[in-house]
Predict the 3D structure of the following.
Amino acid sequence: MKIFLLLLLLGVNGAAGVTHSMKYFKTASSGIPNFPEFVSVGLVDEVEFVHYDSNTKRAEPKQDWMKEAVDQQYWDTQSEIVLRQQQTFKGNIDILKQRFNQTGGVHIVQVMYGCEWTEGTKEVKGFWQEGYDGEDFISFDLNTQTWIAPTAEAVITKNKWDNNKAEIAQAKNYLTEICPQWGKKYLQAGRSSLMRTDRPSVSLLQKSSSSPVSCFATGFYPNKAVLFWRKDGDDLHDNVEEGEILPNPDGTFQKSSDLDLSSVRPEDWGKYECVFQLDGLKDDIITKLDQSVIRTNSVPVPPSEFPVGPVVGGVVGLLLLTACICGLLIWRRRVHGYQRGLEVDTELE
């Protein structure tokens, strides 16, 4: 079976201090028309490389490098594994509906698991969290090797899983050993794409003269980036609103940081600058706060130059990714994710 034999011989080399991740997101749903009952996606360094849903019943590559890295036997095996998970998740929805005294309606079970590792060190972080209808249901504490139940309805599951020492040992081994091992193999297979560095375009945008000025960076990769404002060389925190890093349709990312100008005197504009820093770029990208370079709605800009496409495309891409990964619901708490290769029994009862 041709699965990364060459990569095992070559090894994986990376820059010390760089953190990588592999995560799997699995979503089971009921009562949602025209949406797969089960979706599973895998991401390495936030890039989707494998996808499965209950309509196709096939695990499929999402990147060209993944198609070349493994053979058909790999995909057949993965399809069988995830199909078994699909059946388990379907039963879990019925169990949880009973636990919460529910009957019909829309219900969603979500699972996120995986790991992060830092090149040049032995540091590995494993994550496993499950949710129901947008709320935390149960999570695994790798340090204590116990399950955490934030709700009374999850206590039954916690007690069952805590008492299964064999599966706890299997989960620990997967999150700290198997997950980073396979993550490094996937990373090496997609190295030319995943380890690249794309420099962004950075613009200053403003809706009107009374609106905040938005420093907008788009087209960068990887997503390990920082965007901030500073005055006279000092970082600004007051009157600044930072945006999330969002995906663009082409696999790159975008980010914005808004500066409220209400307390900025015109004569002080030259003291302000927007700074963009990207993992892999040696130099910072600095954009001075200058009225002449700000793009506004009142100043026509050729469509090929104004970054509206990436903004809209990024939002659409984010919505599609959220729908597929999170099953139309977003956990109220931001949590790290997870993966598949692990055959731990996750039946709730």
